[in-house]
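Bumping my old thread because nobody answered last time. Still need a sequence for this structure:
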């Protein structure tokens, strides 16, 4: 059994979109997909077999004011137009519908990680929590604190899954997968620094204290999870796919040149996956 984890990262998620497009071209399959934030959108298009669907979202739709803008923020309280992205664009009558029937018929397992805003704990949604034209779990997983209102599912508010489980490697290991492909959107040796998280957490603490606490912990949790992934990589149980550089790309940087560069890098790096999945698991290497 194998799985892929796409950690997302806003518009840096274009790197994962490139990885998955190569996988579709080469017929590479995964038994399970884990998606965090933008990584969930990449995964669901992959499960639908819709090659280059996410490319259009990153290179065209993301530049529309309905997708993300301060106009959205002042009008609705959310910078990201999640209902536009995963509704108006993605619904069956939308501009680029998700082939949800194919997602269901794929027979694959799909985990979408979101953060319960009240507890600060991760929730691992599955396909059982989704249905045609109701992609609320992906909206919840992509809801960025401080610039978005929390997204409610069954009355419970959620924020971005990257707050509470930015690299869900522990969950995948506990599930017993033999081969895990981890798709990062930062260089593999780029450890997270807590400064920005702490600044955002201070502004959230009064209304969402447990979300703020999750933000305080995020850097250390990310870094520890990355170390775990690297350790298991030595044993052949994990393959880390990561860009060599992100240049000036930040979570919400809209630069077509940078987006295209990361996409092409993802496509190239994705070529390593098929061979990795075909290999027998090796004995641990000397560190």
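Sorry it took so long. Here it is:
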């Amino acid at each position: 059994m194998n799985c892929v984890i796409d950690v997302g990262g806003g518009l840096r998620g274009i790197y994962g979109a490139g990885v998955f497009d190569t996988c579709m071209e080469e017929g590479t399959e995964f038994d399970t997909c884990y998606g965090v934030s933008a990584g969930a959108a990449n995964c669901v298009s992959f499960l639908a077999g819709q090659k280059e669907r996410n490319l259009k979202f990153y290179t065209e739709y993301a530049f529309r004011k309905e997708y993300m803008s301060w106009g959205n923020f002042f009008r609705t309280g959310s910078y990201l137009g999640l209902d536009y992205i995963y509704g108006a664009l993605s619904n069956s009558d939308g501009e680029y519908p998700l082939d949800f029937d194919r997602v269901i018929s794929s027979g694959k397992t799909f985990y979408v990680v979101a953060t319960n805003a009240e507890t600060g704990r991760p929730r691992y949604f599955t396909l059982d929590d989704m249905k045609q034209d109701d992609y609320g779990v992906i909206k919840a997983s992509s809801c960025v604190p401080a610039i978005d209102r929390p997204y409610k599912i069954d009355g419970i508010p959620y924020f971005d899954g990257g707050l509470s489980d930015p690299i869900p490697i522990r969950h995948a290991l506990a599930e017993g997968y033999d081969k895990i492909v981890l798709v990062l959107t930062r260089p593999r040796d780029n450890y997270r620094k807590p400064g920005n998280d702490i600044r955002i957490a201070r502004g959230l603490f009064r209304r969402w204290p447990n979300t703020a606490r999750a933000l305080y912990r995020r850097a250390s949790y990310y870094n520890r999870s990355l170390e775990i992934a690297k350790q298991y990589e030595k044993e052949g149980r994990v393959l880390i796919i990561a860009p060599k550089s992100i240049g000036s790309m930040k979570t919400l940087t809209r630069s077509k040149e940078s987006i295209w560069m990361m996409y092409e890098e993802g496509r190239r790096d994705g070529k390593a996956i098929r061979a990795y999945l075909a290999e027998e698991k090796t004995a641990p290497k000397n560190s």
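The beta strands are 2-6, 32-36, 109-116, 122-125, 151-153, 156-160, 179-183, 238-241. Let me know if any region looks off to you.
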